[in-house]
Amino acid sequence: MEKDDTDIKRKPGRPRGFDRDAALDAAMRTFWAHGYETTSISDLTAAMGINAPALYSAFGDKKRLFLEALALYRGDPEAEAEAISAAPTAGDAARMILFGAIERFTGDQTPKGCLIASSLATGSPASEDVRAEAATIRQSVAENLRQRIARDARDGILPDGADTEALAGMIVCTVQGLSALARDGAPRARLERIATAVLAGWPDREAVSVA
User: Fold this and answer.
1) Distance between CA atoms of 73 and 167, rounded to whole angstroms?
2) For residue 149, what is the domain's CATH number?
3) pTM for this structure?
4) Crossing angle of helices 90-105/164-183, nearest 10°?
């Protein structure tokens, strides 16, 4: 007698109604909370609501899943660059970066700190691509800000001899430090005071809103 279709055992894999976007978001939050190396496949499948074969089928492997989650976390890099470029001054762009980071690092519905910062802490040879991609994102933000600072220097808004690379690096380093403090449980108000203190030392301080 022929078996009915319902009697045929399905191979393990992607469940019915699989929502790839929702699964990716869950993976992003799991990596964000625990870091790349300490997040296991079982951690990911539990959060994503799928089994391991489905994960590998949809995303390839853990590393490729993380890189895709990292891209989701970052958002549109062109929009990011445009926002920095369109800021009234480089100081305002710096403020936008700092306070935007604080808002993300201390959200009520997301893990504390920065996913990019946690991935930079990886150390095994197998995670080299992960570390390189995270470093590229950080360097991209710094370069976009450096270019905005250089424009202010050309326009006479910043004093002669302003070190554009150092100023951009100061903001990126502050973001990394704010992430660490957020992971340690520092409240948003404390991080905002730190950002305000950093901006108070900006050469264009009068054009930067620090309130």
Assistant:
1) 25
2) 1.10.357.10
3) 0.85
4) 20
Q: Which amino acid makes up residue 132? A: A
Average pLDDT, the chain: 88
Q: Total structural domains in the chain?
A: 2
- The answer to whether residues 100 and 203 belong to one domain is yes
Q: What is the pLDDT of residues 62-79, one digit of tens each?
A: 999 999 999 999 999 999
> In the structure encoding, which two tokens stand for residue 29, read together?
């939050």
* 34, 55, 72 - which closes a domain: 72
Q: Rounded distance, CA 131 to CA 136, Å? A: 9
Q: How far is CA 148 from the centre of its chain?
A: 21
User: Per residue in 104-125, is it b (16+ CB within 10 Å) or e — as a string?
Assistant: bbbeeeebbbbbbbbbbebeee
pLDDT tens-place string over residues 7-47: 434 445 555 567 999 999 999 999 999 989 889 999 999 99
Within 10 angstroms of residue 70's Cβ, the number of other Cβ atoms is 20
Rounded distance, CA 102 to CA 87, Å? Answer: 18
Contact 191, 181 (CB under 8 A): yes
Query: One-letter amino acid identity for 17?
Result: G
